[in-house]
Amino acid sequence: MSNIFNGPTQVAHAGGLWKSMLYTNSEEAILKNYVDGFRFFEIDLAGLADGHVITAHDGSEARFGVTGGKKFGEVSLSDVSLTCLKTRLTILRLERLLEIARDLQMKLILDVKNNHELVYSKIYNVAKSLDALHLVIPQAYNERTVENVKGLGFPHWLMTFWGIGRRSPEEKVQFCEIHRPSIVWMRADTWSPNFEAQVRNTGVQDVGLHANMDAVRSREFLRRGLHVMNDCTYIDAYDEDVDAALISEQINALYRLYLKRKPDTDGLNKKLDRVVAGKSTINDVRVEIINSAEHKALIRKPAAK
Questions:
Q1: pLDDT at residue 277 is higher than 80
Q2: Cα–Cα distance between 272 and 95 in angstroms, integer?
Q3: How many CB atoms lie within 10 A of CB 305?
Q4: C-alpha–C-alpha distance, residues 286 and 182, integer Å
Q5: 85-105 per-residue burial string, b: 16 or more CB within 10 A, e: under 16
Q6: What pLDDT does 239 receive?
Q7: Domain boundaries of the chain, sorted by first residue
Q8: Cα–Cα distance between 236 and 69 in angstroms, integer?
Q9: Cα distance between residue 17 and residue 30, in whole Å
Q10: What residues contact residue 123 under an 8 Å CB cut-off, 6+ apart?
Q11: How distant is the alpha carbon of residue 143 from its chain centre?
């Protein structure tokens, strides 16, 4: 599998932020965030009963005119409004989504929400007909979906660890050893430098993190060479504009939360310097404090009556 990424990459989650709205998977959000700088987009896909595929998250059926409590997989395209009844934003058929990707040469990480085998096949066939297979990265979630995407012959595919979220870190590493993904996505709160190193040792080339709305952590991870899927606006210069004051506040908060005290000046400055330089992240600091002898002594100490 060739490397589809070119350096640390920002991915707009569910099409990216549209004004104050998240997870719209809408044409408006995609085009707005493309103009802002994003070139990679994570998009949710739902398969319909008649074989059509649309850019929507499961559980949002009522917003698109589906009645009677039915799921997307139980209705046809004629039963669905492609304009959200609440936001008036436009969702897309798969064909239109891939035409936009081809015309703008943007990459799509595709999160299939139902009817996985049928939707994967539809993605493959439509992308191939548009000469856009190199632009799509279907997500896999477990052994069965890995077999689906590998069997179809996608040039790129991505393994999401939240699909096997109940498994231990050791079991996730073993999964990579068996199935050999080149790209792995995990939640930012499950990441650590050691876990990343173990995953990469199996042959994984690219690791991405889901960082939600946290622009500070997104900058930290990008400086470390990781890919970031987030709900923030595009970060123009992640190796500059480091908000040292905010990072200092976060470190102070961790000390108060876990050690019940303010940090000493020397300890604070050393941790702050490491984070600002991109040598560690706030999560590293949190793990360091939690694993400290001082914190362990505090949690062993019985509460005062």
A1: no
A2: 48
A3: 3
A4: 29
A5: eeeebbbbbbeebbebbeeee
A6: 66
A7: 10-230, 244-300
A8: 42
A9: 9
A10: 45, 53, 94, 110, 112, 136, 138
A11: 20
* The two three-digit tokens of residue 9, written as one number: 């990459």
Indicate whether 119 pLDDT > 90: yes
Q: Specify the amino acid at residue 20.
A: S
Report CA 188 to chain centroid distance, whole Å: 9
Contact between 205 and 182 (Cβ < 8 Å): yes
pLDDT of residue 120: 98
Lowest model confidence (mean pLDDT) among 131-135, 250-254, 277-281: 277-281
Looking at 3.40.630.30, 1.10.443.10, 3.20.20.190, 3.30.70.2730, the CATH number of the domain 10-230 comes to 3.20.20.190
Helix H or strand E segment including 274: helix 265-276
pLDDT at residue 1, as a whole number: 43
